[in-house]
Each structure stands twice: as C-alpha cells, then as structure tokens.
Design a protein that fits this description.
With about 1150 residues, the chain is of the alpha+beta class. Among the domains are: about 250 residues, Beta-galactosidase, Chain A, domain 5; about 120 residues, Jelly Rolls (Sandwich), CATH 2.60.120.260; about 90 residues, Golgi alpha-mannosidase II (Immunoglobulin-like); about 110 residues, Sandwich (Immunoglobulin-like); about 100 residues, Immunoglobulins (Immunoglobulin-like). It is about 20% helix and about 35% strand. The protein has 17 helices and 72 strands. The strands form 17 sheets. Strands 17-18-19-20-31-28-27-22-23 form a nine-stranded antiparallel β-sheet. Strands 16-1-6-21-30-29-24 form a seven-stranded mixed β-sheet, with no helix packed on it. Helix 13 packs antiparallel against helix 14. It is globular and about 100 Å long.
C-alpha cells in the first residue's frame, strides 16, 4: 500500500504558460482585470488597471491523481531496528527484542521494572528543512505502563528548540498488549534545521515496545504538463482536454462577469474506478514583497520559504482545508483574489501562495465514484478571479465577494431576533417573562432583546441512544452488538409516533468510517447513572451516532419539518419570520474535521461531488447536512417564512451558513488568536444575525459563571455586532440579575449596529493595535464605527479616517454618539489626523458619527424601531385604542426621520406626548416592561433637541450598590452651552409612581452664565424594591431659543445585596451525607432578625432546612448543615436556592448556590 504522505500528488497541468499572442483571446472586466490567453490556452498576460503582474513559468489548471504517486522517503535510518542498534543509543533498561515486533523481526524495548518509578526515552534526530510539512510517528505497544508519551520537537542548527511548542505529540490509548499506530504532523518554523522524535516512559513503571519510527516530508504535488484546446464561447473561452493515460477528461469555460472572471469546469473519470483527485488552478506569479492576507486584520509579507495559507485540519484531501472561500494578495498598486461560490455546495479546497514555486493557487480535492448517483464518475467545480483595492486588502476582497454572491448572504428575518434556541429562552406574552430553560422566569423580557416562537428542534448530524451496560471496565460495544440493539429498538418503536428520529431511520442514516465501521461523534462515552446525557438509574453507554441528514437517505425529518410548518401556517395571528426551527450542529457537526461519510449508499443521493479521505484515499462525503438544508429546510422555511437557527461551530461551516438565519457558537475554537473567531463569525455571514451561546473563558471554553467572562463577551460582541449569551449564563449562575444592566445597554447597541449593516471596508484605521469595524454609511445617516482593544492595558488610539471615501463633505460638521451606554449625548468630532479614541484594557466602544441633523433623524429612526418592538411584544394585548396610539406615534416618528430644524423639534415633542398617550392607552399586565420600552423611546427621540439645540442632560447610566430604604445619589448636570433656555423643569420618571414621588432632581447651584447646571438628584430605593435593577428617567423640560423641548436620560439603579452568602465546601458526594458550613455576612449597619429557608432539588435533603437567627450589623455568622444526597442525584452541578426573610424588608433576599456533585469512589 502506498504511504499517505506519498499520496500527495503527481499533478497534471494544462499548459497556460507565458507566450506572445498569435490570435488568442482577451478577457477583460470593468473592474480593471484583464486575462490574455493564446489559442493553445497559454496565459499571455494578467493585468490589473493596465499594469501587468509579474508572471513566471507555467500555471493554469492542473490535476493530481493521488492514487499514483511515488512513495515517501522515511528520513529515520534503521527505523525498524532490523539492522540492530545501528543509529540508536540504547540506555540502561533499553534493549532490542526479537520476540516482539510490529513489522520484521525486531523492536526496541523500554522497561522500568520497579518498584521504584523512573523515566526512559528513546529518541532519534534527523536533518529537517524549515517551513516544511512533515508526518511523524511510530508503532507503540505498552504493558503495565502508568504514563508514557510520544513526541516530536524542532531544533535549530545549534540544537536549541525552535518550534512554536517545545514538543508536539500524539494521544496514546490506554490499551495493553496491542500495537498502536501513532502519527501526527508538524509544519516546521523558519529557524528549524532538525527534528527529534521520541517515545518514553515517564516517572512510571512498565514496558514499552517501539517499532517503525518514521519522519516523512509531506509532498503536495509533482506536475506533468499536458496541452488543451480553446475556442470562443459567449462572453468567454472554452477549454477541452483529455488525459487518456490517466483515464480523465476535463472541460472548463472562462467567462467574463461584471466584476470577475468565472471558471466553471468538470473533471470526469473514464476507468470506472474510485479516484482521488486534486484540481488546481495556479497563476504563476512572483509576488515577493507583496502581502498575503490571512483574514481582515492578519497579514504577512510574502517571501521565499513559507507557504502562505489559512487552514484548519481535516480528514479529507491533504489534511487541511482553507478557512475562507476567498483569498487576497496585494501589492503596491494591485490586489488579486481567487474565490469559490458557496452555492456549488461543500468543497474541500485550498487557497494559497507558494513563493518557492512562484504561484498563487486554488485546489479542489475531489473523490470520484461511479455510484455517486448525481455525479457518477465526475465532479463539477467553480471559482472566480477578481481584482480588489490593495489599500484594504482582504476587506476589499470580501466586499467584492458579497457583491458577487448576494444569494449566499440573505438576511431573511425582518427584526433583530436572537433569542429562543431550542425553546430555552421563551418569551411569555402573558406576563412578559423570559422563561429560561423552562425553569426560571426573568421579569421584563425586553431587557434581553427579542426572539422567536419555537416550533421544532433538530439534532443535526447525530442521533443519540443510551444503552444500559453494567461492565465495570466499560468498553464500547462492537458494531455487531450495536446494530442488534438498534434493530430491537426499531421493532419496539414501530407502533409509536416520534418527533425525534425513529431508530429505523437512524439505521439508514448512520455514517460509516473508511473500514465500514460505525462513526460516532466525540461525546460518545460511558456514563454513570444520572451523569451527563444518561438520565436513567442505570450506567451505560451513550452512543451518539454520526448520521447523514440527506432527505433522500431518510425523509423523516423533512416530513416533520413540513408538517410543523404547515401547522404553524394555520396559527391565528402569526407573522412572517416570527417563529423558528432550531438545530444543534446546524453546520454538520465537524464532519470534515472529525468524521467524513464513507457509506456508499449515501453517495447515490447527494447533490454535491465527493471528496476523499486523507489517510485512505477513499471517496467520501465531507458534509452530512448540506443536502438537508438545500432540499428541505431552506425551501420549507422560505415558503412558510420561518427562521432557521442553530449551533454552528468550527471553521468548516462556510458552505452551510447560507441556509442559516441565526447561527450561534458555543466556544472559541481559536483562543490563541484574539479576535480571529469574532472576525470569522462576522465574515461568514456578512450582515446576518449572530450570537454567542456561551461566555467564553480564556481557553475558549464555557466561562458563564465568571462575571469577568460575561462582561468580556459583551465587549467582544459589541465590536462585531454579535448578540450575547443568555440561557447559559442563567444556567451557570442561577441569577442573571447582576448582568441585567449590561443587557439593557449592549443588546440595543448591537441591534442598532446589526440594523445598520456591517461593511467590511471601514475606511478608518487606528493605532495601538485597535481594530476598527464599520456599520452603515454616511449617506443614510447611519455611519457607525466600533473599536476593539485586545491589549491588557488601556490605550489612547489615534484614528485615521478617509472621510472622502465615506462620502463626508469638507463642510460637514460632525458629532459622535457613544451608543453604549444609550444616553442621548453628542460630542463634536474635530476632523484632523489625530482623532483620539480611548479604550479600556480588553475594551470596546461603538460610535455613531454624522451631522447634527443626521443625529436627530437617527433618534427618530431608533424610536420608530422601538415602537415596532412594542407592537411585536404587546401584540396579544393591543386593542383599537392602543393600536391607534401606536400608529400615531409611528407616524410622528416617520415624519421626524426627514424633518429639519423647528419641524424636527416639534415632531420630537409630539413623539414625547405620543409616548404618554401610549402608556395610558395600552392596557397591559406588564406595565413595567412597557414603561422600560417607552423610556428607551423617550431617550432616543431626545437626540433631536440634544443635537439640534446643543443641550445635554448628563448622568451616569448605572448607579451601583444602592442601599434599600435610601435615596441613591446621582451626579447629574444640565448643559445648555450658548443656547438660551427658559422655564427649565426637572423631574424623575419611574414605572412605579411611589418611587417617582419620593425621588428628586433639582438644581444644586445657580448656573454659571447659563451654560451648565449641577443637579442634586436622589433616586428612591424602597426597603423592599420591586426590581433589583430599577429603571428611571431624569427629564429636563423647558424652552430653548423659544422652542419647547424635552430631554430624557436613562438611569438604572442597581440595588445592592443586604447579605453575602457562602456555602462550603463546594464539592459533595452523592449517596452519602456531607457536612457543610453556611455563612451569612450582614452588609448593613443595623441588626436583623432573619428566617432562613432552602429549596432543594429532588433526592436531596438538608438539615436543618429552616431556622431563625439574629445577626448584628456588619458581622458574619455561620451554621453547620448536613446535606444528604440520594445515590441517583445527577452528577455535576447541584443548585440550591436560599431564601432569607425578615420583618425588616431590607434583609429580604434569595439566590442560588451551586455545589459540584460526584459519585463515591468505587
């Protein structure tokens, strides 16, 4: 069998080398790109803007037949110890063993007999090249070894470590007595000159046998040129060629488009055999000194040595696949891109520039099989070539790509909904609660944004079955047993209707590996009773099968989707796009990275061509959900106007994202590169809605319990308009209230940015490593910039803006609005080269920028959007009077969007009055949520007088740690500048009249020259407040230059906790009693009489469960408790709720405490 490293390519090239024109063909597009071809299909010239690019050698289309290639060279001498110890240094405890070998007669044996532990390693060092891909490994057999490893390290010419990591190794299965194949890859660094490969026993005892070491350079192709014939066709040139010695035929057509040259081709097999092919298009360009763009921000200067590419590891093709479907290289005066249309379906591909070979290329990795029903023995491919603006590099390339392929980035939802994945964040219109995880009801749902009505949830590309299994040393059942179990389940289910995939359908869909074995996803494992996915009293295996969702393999889910859609279509009062289908692993559950589909029955129905396995060269499917999206979910949801929403992880998701309206991501799969994933998320979906499902920790995992992680994910989301996590933060903390103030500021800001629409070219750059993004444009009055500082220190960045390209005239006087914290304030923008933006460590800001007239119009647009939000959220309670009031307010807002001067100010006052009427006319069971939205509207429309009259009512958005039963002091100021004001009145508005009555705001000092008035403000906090975060408005009313005005500034009062609570220790064991210590710290100065009670989950008891206690002011008391857990209490988090009440309501408090439950050690 050929080595896989050897199977990387004899490329067969269609000669398109540099030649003088003799007749020939000229293909030119309006964007300034020109490609000249001879009659024989040779490239004569490539020009951008009239300048020829530096061509070198040959290029064009190429084919690699990966099953017919020279064997790789193993750089390890005497790799199998067949020449004795030659080339090896055997230390004490190391010997050659002729009784045990993987291949041949001999292996190396490492033994630490004990009883004392020790370490032993056997290493080989070979010369290596820099910037080179190597495959390394060995065969290893273990017996009784506690800790062992296999590693490779890079070293420079002096023997010093030179790799990004000191060592890279393989995971060694804990399986004795069998030979284990170990293999992994390394791409060497520029300084690397040697590679070392070793295996070891580490501080342990036992025996290792080692055999067949290998270090092989991974080759990616040797080219064999062939000729082709061209002929003109409409708008282009056709190329035809046959490769009879390879049993292949290739056709391609190059056509002119408005902004690109498009190449559509097909490769065909004539032998009837399975094929593993690479189809490459290469431009022979010498781009030394040019720039290769990894993404919108990361870039490298091209030089000889490294191959420039941005990839993720996969199990198809040559083991890597490009992240983005476009590339970008830029020189001083030109930019060039190769790109793939997403509509052709999933492809395994590679975009790169190799300066050593002086070529920029795109390669498709295609598997051909005669039983691929829709593409028998053939595979189509499509790509485009276009120019972009070198000043903006990949950002300009992205801008053009979105313009070329708008069908792949359609934003279907008509409002900014992001909540309610899998019905885990359900809005209850009866009381305006956000019901999280069907357990916790959070007041005032509008604080968290909007979502969709849930219709149905799908597990994308995996089907789960829990199987009871009592083996004390659990090993996953073999395939024969599993299939037997599944057939039994299918028989038992035959008479029952299921919305979850029936087992009979799962049997059809199961994905096979390359040897015909069942393929599982990564969380298939043995679960103890009530652990993880096992919700039964019996331990057993949770079998999570990879499945292919192609509706022609199993139509079950497509039928369920259509039935659910038809049922909803008959629902009274439904609106387009107000409901959702959701799916986990909506992108295909890492099929290309973790488990391509080799099941040949599945080849017959897929709509896309096959790929081939990296290690085995067999044809396979690299994605197992695209067919379902294309044939079922997208057309069904388009017909019935239902949003698609799902969990999308990994860099391989680009081809499925055109079918997803609201994708979300669980974790950061690239935590070592700050901001890279956020940029990818925005790029992959252009202007669509995105969200985080979790708040990440520094390692990219779930960090929802740490407030610092939650706050950081708000900042990251602001920079790229990505909505925040909700359900997972509530699940992890049991209490979202400490974060509510952040949601109230950041969610409306993200709504504003997302509505304005992301633009990849910002026409602005900042110093200090600050990343600038643009949303909206100046012409519409919706120009926004976001700024992200990834540094762990504050920065004062200098901002350079290309105002002309943004459409800003020299005479335009600009102001900026900081859209967080959502207060109506305008700051003049001085247009010069050193505009400064100050950001906190790991901080982000978002600014709206425009003229004062635009600022007023912007306020009306925001207010109009808030009115539509009220219409949606209160739809079930609207009657004729409230509908009329809402319509009137909406009409006023729409008029205000284009009004100027006094007319705009009049409309602003009219809208403030319309808000008053709406508050009275809309009879609702949720008056607080309505008032919150009306407060938001009042602040938004206040932008008109703030901008046009140059007035401000300044106050902090958050007043923290307010004490119950006291007035919270607010530092406020009214600024009028040179505007003449009169009859100024100040007041406090609150959803609760009694709070408004007891609050105050008044001038604290006589204004100095009428320019600035310091205000004395106190916002009352009742002893038993109605909310832990209480919204208020500070209002200023009067006349300015004879015109009436109202300015409303929001202030949220965060009520501080009266008591601090702790329960220790945090880890407990089920099936037994644990002794705990419960402590209460009184933060108040006064003594309190407390009644303590607990709410526990099932199968848990606490003694004592209730008691009364007296606590002095600012002291701590403790109480010993006994927690007893049943043996079947679920492993993991245990949530206990404490409730403390008192005759003095200031002490009333409740909250969650989490303990970690484990099983007793056996």
């Amino acid at each position: 069998m050929l080595s896989r490293a050897a199977a990387l390519g004899v490329f067969v090239t269609l000669l398109l080398s540099v030649a003088s024109l003799a007749g020939g063909h000229r293909l030119e597009i309006a964007a300034g790109l020109r490609l000249e071809l001879s009659d024989e299909g040779r490239v004569a010239q490539i020009l951008i803007g009239g300048s020829a690019l530096p061509l070198r050698g040959t290029g064009g289309l190429a084919i690699a037949d990966f099953k017919h290639q020279p064997a790789a060279v193993n750089l390890v001498p005497n790799a199998g110890f067949e020449d004795g110890a030659t080339g090896w240094r055997l230390a004490q405890g190391q010997s050659l063993d002729s009784s045990v070998a993987h291949f041949g007669q001999t292996s190396a044996r490492l033994e630490v007999a004990g009883p004392e532990t020790a370490s032993s390693n056997l290493e080989v060092v070979v010369p290596a090249k820099p910037n080179t891909r190597y495959r390394v490994g060995m065969w290893l057999r273990r017996q009784g070894v506690g800790v062992c490893g296999a590693y490779a390290s890079e070293r420079d010419e002096n023997g010093r470590l030179s790799g990004k990591q000191s060592q890279v190794g393989a995971v060694i299965p804990k399986q004795d007595g069998v030979w284990l194949p170990l293999a992994w890859e390394i791409v060497t660094e520029p300084a690397t000159r040697r590679l070392s490969l070793r295996a070891d026993i580490y501080r342990s005892t036992g025996t290792l046998w080692l055999d067949d070491y290998f270090i092989e350079e991974v080759s990616e192709g040797v080219y064999e040129p062939v000729a082709g014939k061209t002929q003109p066709v409409a708008d282009g040139v056709a190329l035809q060629t046959a490769l009879p010695e390879r049993g292949l035929e290739v056709d391609a057509v190059v056509r002119r488009g408005k902004d690109c040259l498009r190449i559509d081709g097909e490769v065909r097999d004539t032998t009837g055999e399975d094929r593993a092919l690479g189809v490459r298009f290469a431009l022979p360009l010498d781009l030394a000194g040019w720039t290769w763009h990894r993404d919108a921000e990361e870039r490298e200067s091209i030089q000889a040595g490294p191959v420039y590419r941005h990839t993720y590891k996969c199990r198809t093709g040559i083991g890597v696949c490009s992240v983005y479907p476009w590339s970008a290289v830029t020189g001083p005066d030109a930019g060039l891109s190769l790109a793939l249309p997403l509509a052709q379906g999933p492809r395994v591909f590679l975009l790169q520039h190799d300066q050593n070979r002086q070529e920029t290329s795109l390669t498709f990795f295609l598997g051909l099989a005669k039983d691929a029903g829709r593409h028998p023995g053939r595979a189509p491919f499509s790509f485009v070539l276009y120019a972009h603006d070198p000043a903006w590099g990949m950002r300009s390339a992205m801008e053009t790509y979105y313009r070329l392929f708008p069908e792949s980035f359609v934003k279907r939802p008509t409002f900014e909904g992001y909540l309610n994945y899998a019905n885990m964040e359900r809005f209850d219109p009866a009381n305006h609660a956000l019901v999280v995880n069907s357990r916790d009801a959070l007041d005032d749902a509008s604080d968290f944004g909007e979502g969709y009505k849930f219709l149905w949830h799908l597990h994308g590309c995996y089907d789960f079955r829990q199987v009871a299994y009592d083996d004390p040393n659990p090993k996953r059942p073999d395939d024969e047993i599993v299939f037997g179990l599944l057939r039994e389940m299918a028989t038992a289910e035959a008479s029952r209707r299921r919305d979850y995939t029936p087992t009979a359908e799962t049997l059809k869909k199961i994905v096979f590996g390359p040897r015909g074995e069942i393929s599982y996803i990564g969380d298939t494992r043995y679960w103890r009773a009530h652990e993880g996915y096992n919700h039964t009293d019996q331990p057993g295996w949770g079998l999570n099968f990879r499945v292919n969702e192609d509706p022609d393999v199993s139509p079950f889910l497509a039928k369920v989707a259509r039935r659910k859609a038809e049922e909803y279509a008959r629902t009274e009062g439904r609106r387009d796009w107000d409901a959702t289908f959701t799916a986990d692993a909506i992108e295909g559950y890492f099929a290309n990275m973790g488990g391509p589909d080799y099941r040949r029955e599945h080849f017959r129905t897929t709509r896309v061509p096959l790929a081939f396995g990296y290690e085995n060269l067999q044809p396979c499917l690299p994605n197992t959900i695209w067919d379902f999206h294309h044939a079922a979910w997208w057309p069904i949801t388009e017909q019935y106007k239902i949003a698609t929403y799902g969990n999308a992880n990994g860099y391989e998701q680009f081809f499925t994202m055109p079918f997803v309206d609201v994708p979300m991501t669980e974790g950061n799969w690239d935590p070592k590169h700050q901001g890279r994933l956020d940029r990818f998320m925005r790029a992959v979906n252009y202007r669509k809605i995105w969200r985080y499902w979790h708040a990440w920790n520094k390692s990219g995992g779930y960090g929802d319990r740490d407030p610092a992680n939650v706050q950081a994910h708000f900042r990251g989301g602001l920079a790229c308009a990505i909505y925040p996590a909700v359900a997972c933060v509530q699940s992890a903390t049991g209490d979202l209230e400490p974060h509510r103030a952040w949601y109230r500021q950041y969610v409306p800001a993200i709504e504003e940015l997302s509505t304005a629409g992301w633009e990849p070219v910002p026409y602005a750059k900042a110093s200090e490593g600050v990343v600038v993004e643009r949303f909206g444009d100046f012409a519409r009055g919706e120009l926004h910039f976001t700024f992200r500082n990834y540094a762990d220190r504050p920065v004062d960045a200098v901002l350079g803006v290309d105002w002309k390209s943004l459409g800003v005239g020299e005479a335009d006087e600009l102001v900026a609005i900081d859209i967080v914290p959502r207060t109506p304030q305008c700051v003049p923008v001085v247009r010069r080269d050193d505009v400064h933006v100050v950001l906190e460590a790991d901080g982000a800001r978002a600014l709206w920028i425009g003229t004062r007239v635009q600022a007023a119009h912007h306020g009306f647009r925001l207010a109009a959007a808030t009115l539509e939000k009220i219409r949606r959220l209160f739809a079930s309670e609207l009657d004729s009077a409230s509908t009329a009031a809402l319509d009137t307010a909406g009409q006023v807002a729409q008029v205000g969007v284009s009004a100027k001067g006094r007319a705009a100010l009049d409309q602003a006052e009219s809208l403030q009055q319309a808000a008053d009427r709406l508050a009275k006319d809309l009879k609702t069971r949720s008056p607080v949520d309505l008032q919150k939205l009306l407060f938001r509207l009042r602040a938004e429309v206040s932008l008109a007088p703030v901008a046009l009259l140059e007035l401000e009512l300044q106050a902090p958005r958050i007043v923290g740690d307010a004490r119950k039963g006291q007035a919270a002091a607010v530092a406020a100021r009214f600024v009028s500048g040179t505007t003449k004001t009169a009859d100024i009145e100040f007041r406090v508005a609150s959803p609760w009249p009694e709070i408004a009555e007891r609050s105050r705001v008044r001038p604290a000092a006589t204004p100095r020259g009428g320019q600035s008035t310091i205000l004395e403000a106190g916002l009352w906090v009742p002893a038993d407040p109605p909310r832990r975060l209480m919204p208020c408005l500070l209002e200023a009313r009067g006349t300015a230059d004879g015109l009436p005005f109202t300015i409303a500034t929001p202030v949220d009062v965060q009520v501080g906790p009266p008591l601090d609570i702790k329960l220790m220790p945090e880890r407990v064991v089920r099936g037994q009693a644990s002794q705990l210590k419960f402590s209460i710290t009184n933060r108040l100065a006064e003594e309190g009489q407390l009644a303590v009670a607990f709410v526990l989950p099932a199968k848990a008891t606490l003694e004592p469960a209730t008691w009364e206690v007296s606590i002095a002011g600012q002291t701590t008391i403790e109480r010993e408790l006994t927690l007893t857990l049943d043996q079947n209490v679920p492993i993991g988090d245990l949530r206990i709720t404490y409730r403390i009440s008192s005759h003095d309501p200031r002490f009333n408090t409740q909250g969650p405490i989490f303990l970690s439950v484990d099983a007793a050690k056996e």
